[in-house]
Amino acid sequence: MENHPFFGVFLHSIGGLAAASFYIPFKKVRKWSWESYWLIGGVFSWIIAPWIIAYLTAPNLLATLVGAPRSSLMWCYFFGILWGIGGLTFGLSMRYLGMSLGYAIALGFCAAFGTIIPPIFQNQFVELLQTASGVVTLAGVAVCLCGIAFCGAAGIRKENELPEEEKKQTIHEFHLWKGVWVALFAGVMSACMAFGITAGKPIAALALENGAPTLWQNTPVFVIVLAGGFTTNFVWCLYLNFRNQSWSDYVRLMDDASILTNYIFSAIAGVTWYLQFMFYGMGTTQMGKYDFSSWTIHMAFIIIFSNIWGWLFHEWKGVKKKTHALVWTGIAILLLSTIIVGIGNYISGQ
After folding, report:
1. Is 58:64 a contact under the CB 8 Å cutoff?
2. CA 288 to CA 345: how far, in whole Å?
3. Would the pTM count as exceeding 0.70?
4. So where are the chain's domains?
5. What is the rounded distance in angstroms from the CA atom of residue 214 to the CA atom of residue 194?
């Protein structure tokens, strides 16, 4: 099969835009507790959208899932559960840190663990060090981590420069250290999505045998991985509904807010969230031998677009010019890293 790494990079950019944008519709939800709109969004992102897309793109979907190796299904679901914990706490990091800093810290750790561990697990890492294409690809990963560090440093400078009152004008529940610890944990656990996709390669191969186009071979994998993620979030959100007595959110009519509007924007957020992995799954099919590098590219574009959104939402208003220069330098480095990784994958295919 012929690969097109730079087309894969383009698909990853769309996925990164979707991932960086999914939280925006939640800002339109009124008078619902976090756990309520997070769960409604999750139903669309982890159950409804994956099944619909997989059904439309992978012929004989049920036959693929029934015939897949049990070990592959089990590991996909297990890593999905662990990733679900990361996704859950990732949403909390947005509450406490905002889009710019929250994304940078969480995704920095997510990129590092999610990119490096799969090739080590597959005994591919030594090979990477022995080939020109592998060295170039790893160099791109290193450049990406450098760009993430720049963005994270800019975020920390921003928090130090802004007064507490001004931070809470744009991030109402701002709490730096609570958010940092949550983001660190979220980043490590969120890397389990990369492990789940790797564990799902036998499922993707069976989908191809059953007639799925190459570009869509990963959609059945996401059905299983995201089911694991839904399990974690469903249990936690129901617990919070019980603890906070927020059950009425789902049915209570409000004087100055529409319950239908809340459902609609939560659904939009959920579907937008799923689109990141739909395009991510398409992008990995184009990256060739070193498809593990897809995770780095995906994280890079998420951070690029999340910082742009943070700038548009005035999260960077009032910071010094040096801090602005630092974050835009980080974004430029991240863009450079995606080009380097694409070149490494292109060389490996020649």
Report:
1. yes
2. 6
3. yes
4. 5-348
5. 19
